[in-house]
Model the fold of this input.
Amino acid sequence: MSPVNKILAEYPKLDSTHGPKDRETVLSCLYEAMRNDIPGDIVEMGCHVGNMTICLLGMVKELGADKKVYGVDAFQGLPDKTAPDLTNDNCNRVDGGLKCSRKQLVENITGFDAGLMDKLVILEGLFSEVTGYPDQVCFAFFDGDLYESIKDSFDIIYPRVSPGGIICVHDYSNCHYPGVRAITDKYMSGKNDVCTIKSGVLIINKEGQNAGV
Ligand SMILES: C[S@@+](CC[C@H](N)C(=O)[O-])C[C@H]1O[C@@H](n2cnc3c(N)ncnc32)[C@H](O)[C@@H]1O
Done:
């Protein structure tokens, strides 16, 4: 069984934030980056209760890789929306929604496999304020839901992504989160990286040719 299928079958689903297709897309991209020996660590911008974090850690464990997963979150609920995030249908999340705690994240991971914690670095704080990001990144998952949060994710992480590395932007095709697409298109405009959309996730292969994973 491939590591992607093993994790999909055996690792817990902690909440309803992502469907199975999202998980498969993100894990396939991470597997691709790791199989290609892209240097650097793994970053999740918006780790919340660890639904995806546990899968990212699982891949590091399954492949026996010498990499860390950096989970970044303020655990204070979503920051306030700005104009590009507003929709006409009022269906997107309320400001301050998704509040959770670092404790909950840690308990979710240790409750399944305490050994996974050796590979996790939690950076607690606003994306723009926290320090300790890795210098080199092979794979990043952007899941901050909002224009300013995704902007911060690009500003901080994109320059650290190694050539051939992959960024997955969640909710890129989700009409309830228009700010995600607006800032992603703006940031990527004029760049030559290969971009593909799969199950609503935008896959960016930096300076690579391989975003069809
Ligand atoms: C949709 S949830 C992430 C779900 C998570 N990836 C998972 O798999 O469970 C979005 C998270 O991003 C965090 N977040 C959004 N903008 C942020 C910012 N600017 N700084 C820190 N955390 C932020 C929120 O606190 C929230 O926990």
Q: What stands out?
A: The chain has a mean pLDDT of 93. Residues 17-18, 44, 46-52, 73-74, 77-79, 98, 100, 126-127, 143-146, 149, 152 surround S-adenosylmethionine (CB under 6 Å).
